[in-house]
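Task 17 of the worksheet. Students: predict the tertiary structure of the chain below and write it out as structure tokens. Keep your answer in the requested format; marks are given for formatting as well as content.
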Amino acid sequence: MSPDDKVNSADIDSFVSTTLSRLGFLVGETTLINAIQAFQQSRGLVVDGELNPMTLRSLEEARWRLGDRVLSNKSAGLMRGDDVAALQNRLSEMGFNCGKVDGIFGAMTENAVKEFQKSAGVKADGTCGPATVMALMRLQRTVAGGAPTALREEAARINRGPALANKVIVLDPSSDPSDADIAFDIAQRLEGRLIALGVAVFLTRSATMNPSDSARITMANSSNSDLVISLHTDNYSNEKASGVATYYYGSDLHGVHSVVGEKFAALVQREITARTDLLNCRTHAKSWDLLRLTKAPTVRIDLGYLSNPGDAKRLADSAFRETIVESIAIAIQRLYLSSENDAKTGTLRISDLRRAGIRTV
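Model answer:
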């Protein structure tokens, strides 16, 4: 059952209960809400116990195991599921490039299946049926020393060189009414800094246009970007909650994460907390759509809690926003610097980059 199907609430409840039970989340005296929360936690989703569209879709994906169905890129919509992720993982371990392990059977996964089929002596039609699954199960892992997908992602970052000139960065400011103005102001300030350093910058929205999340992802993917930065704030019922947190794509369940995304998230987190008095709420792996479906390494930054009087006061201050902007700009440069050219966290300045010749435009 897909969450997009037109079904009544009883059908949805039955699907949810059955799936959670089969996955081991709904057992004994566990309540349905607690089971949903545990499932959301395991998938890197927002843990609210609500059956929102993303949770329903994740439940649908979680019920599939490799071999349960024939996988192909020929259906009306892209096939999604844990079986696809397992296939992608297996292919990546064997050295076949299917791109990001995102559980979506697209063109790159189809091509990787064809290449594997050729090497395994199976009909090379790009469809993962019983014969292909059996071939995958017969063969052992042939790659050691790190996941090939992660190695390719890191190699691409290094090959792009240390200069920011000619890099493409997408800035994705929040459009939530509570922080739209703050996020857009910070995005515009950062855009100016980056353009001055020779970066091609795209904003996913303007002051008047507010595209959907899927449109933002499409825009980021079509721009052939090197990096995507999503800017937000947070809110919580308890005003004591405060601090900055960064998020990158990762799934403990599937054993995958964005190496470059994780590295950049750590750099941003360290620079902001070194230059401001925002509480360090650390970096976290999540499988939110923006992080999962965007091809380029993507990081979401939550720049404090508007529900916290202290954080709200800081974010309202123009000088503080400038400090945030410089922190992010320096973190971007650090991402591409080799370790021997790096400097102590919180000490590098934009002017240092110019003097060092890093800015080449």
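Marker's comment: The chain has three domains: 9-62, 79-144, 157-355. The first strand starts at residue 79 and ends at 80.
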